[in-house]
Amino acid sequence: MRKCIVGIAGILIRDDQGVLRDFISQEYIRCLEKAGAGVLILPVQKEIPEQIFAVCDGFLFPGGWDVEPSFYGQEKDPRVKETLGELDEFQLRLARAVLEKRKPLLATCRGCQILNVAMGGTLLQHIDGHEQTGERGGMAHRISVEKGSALHRMLGDGCEINSFHHQVIGQTAPGLTVSARAEDGVIEAVEICGYPYGIGVQWHPEVTYAKSEEMKEIFETFVAACESKI
């Protein structure tokens, strides 16, 4: 049997000469490989080839830039950091196509926010206290996980997570349910109702994959869902 393929939605970065380049962290790739998947990085593009959905068994939406507030009907708060409209357009279009085709989907940090916006939700453009400093692989705070959720079967009642964001889900989109919160009430994870595998987490499980059994479980269950689509 062939190895399942996970398509990772590309992120744009601007180099020191101002050139936009497609980029993805090796951390995502290594986690998926260790969980048993092959990886295809999907560059930011205006048209999404239909063949992508024949090749890819599941899709991962990674962390990255702030999301442009106009995509969820708001004026930009001055505390919003740099946004890239062409990146948002690509990822929102891709997310909606993935959802239509009911492919397994895992979204982290910005990806979790993109999932919510793609389905009709909004974001809080700035919150304080959720951008950790110091060691990248350190844990920032604890989350509580909703009993009965898919995430509860992976993480139990709660666990420690990292935190690198200043935006978060505001109004939850129709079709999404909250499955984890921080102690201050901030939404930390959502799940797509009645969907084969659709989870968004506000943290970066790929960063602590090597030392956290809970984070390994997220990637392993995602890849298992992708394998079931072969």
From TrEMBL:
Coiled-coil segments on the chain, per record: none
A single GO BP: polyamine catabolic process
InterPro entries hit by this protein: Class_I_gatase-like, Peptidase_C26, PuuD-like
Alphabetized UniProt keyword annotations: Glutamine amidotransferase, Transferase
Organism of this sequence: Hespellia stercorisuis DSM 15480
PANTHER family reported for this sequence: GLUTAMINE AMIDOTRANSFERASE PB2B2.05-RELATED
GO molecular function, one term: gamma-glutamyl-gamma-aminobutyrate hydrolase activity
Pfam families per record: Peptidase_C26
Any Gene Ontology CC annotation: cytosol
Top-level taxon of the source organism: Bacteria
PROSITE patterns referenced in this protein's UniProt entry, alphabetically: GATASE_TYPE_1 (PS51273)
TM annotation in the entry: none
Protein name: Putative glutamine amidotransferase
